[in-house]
Write a structure and sequence with these properties.
With about 220 residues, this protein is an alpha/beta fold. It has two domains: about 120 residues, Response regulator (Rossmann fold, 3-Layer(aba) Sandwich), CATH 3.40.50; about 100 residues, Arc Repressor Mutant, subunit A (Orthogonal Bundle), CATH 1.10.10. It has eight helices and 14 strands. Strands 2-1-3-6-7 form a five-stranded parallel sheet, sandwiched between helices. A four-stranded antiparallel sheet has the order 8-9-10-11, covered by helices on one side. A three-stranded antiparallel sheet has the order 12-14-13. Bound molecules: calcium ion (CA).
Length: about 220
């Protein structure tokens, strides 16, 4: 049974999270302060940490840093207040594996927890852009907790664009990367890209998209 350390000072949220995670089959230890989070982490072994940032006796980042200095791979999922973009970025920089914005649904949280636990078992760090995560060796791509079912070329194109996110990728560069056998023409690459686009759209992804740069190529970017 995977063991989760939940650090959350809000008594109502903490209780309902602890209860729901237990119902999902996890063992849960609930710490209501930063200090008790520190001592729980010192005393026990956990498979995942769910970490609120605003705690009465300090900032959750302190614990995040402490955990990362001791354990490079233990998944840490941050629970953060809405519209707190800078905390999310800082948290990811400090080594958090993922974040969930408050208020969140319990189902979403459970899915994120499952996903973070699964990732921690594979040692491969994903290529990331926004909520997109690509595990190149496993050839699997996720948006949030949703796995994208991509065809071979679509996967290759998405990987290449993600690796160069927010940069213009020329059609030639893309072609030479994904078509080592020389089977694809300029026109078919456009059609692969357009399939990939409709796939992303069909999966409900609107926060990122593949922009066409006229006469040059493509750019994977955040939707502004
Ligand atoms: Ca709090």
């Amino acid at each position: 049974m995977p063991k989760i350390l939940l650090v959350e000072d809000d008594p109502i949220l903490g209780r309902s999270l602890a209860l729901n995670l237990k119902l999902e089959g996890y063992e849960v230890e609930w710490a209501e302060t930063l200090q008790s989070g520190f001592s729980a982490f010192k005393q026990n072994k956990f498979d995942l940490i769910l970490l609120d940032l605003g705690l009465p006796d300090g900032h959750g980042f302190n614990l995040c840093q402490e955990i990362r200095s001791k354990d490079k791979s233990l998944p840490i999922v941050i629970l953060t207040a809405q519209a707190d973009e800078s905390s999310v970025v800082e948290g990811l920089n400090l080594g958090a594996s993922d974040y969930v914005r408050k208020p969140f649904g319990l189902k979403e949280l459970a899915a994120r927890v499952r996903c973070a636990l699964r990732e921690s078992k594979s040692s491969e760090l994903p290529l990331r852009f926004s909520d997109l995560k690509i595990f190149i060796d496993q050839r699997r791509a996720f948006f949030g907790e949703h796995e994208l079912e991509l065809k071979r070329r679509e996967f290759d194109i998405l990987t290449y664009l993600t690796d160069r996110a927010e940069q213009v990728v020329t059609r030639e560069a893309l072609l030479s990367k994904i078509d080592q056998d020389g089977e694809i023409s300029d026109r078919t690459i456009d059609s692969h890209v357009s399939h990939l686009r409709s796939h992303l759209k069909g999966s409900g992804i609107s926060s990122i998209h593949i922009a066409s740069i006229y006469g040059v190529g493509y750019r994977l970017e955040k939707t502004r």
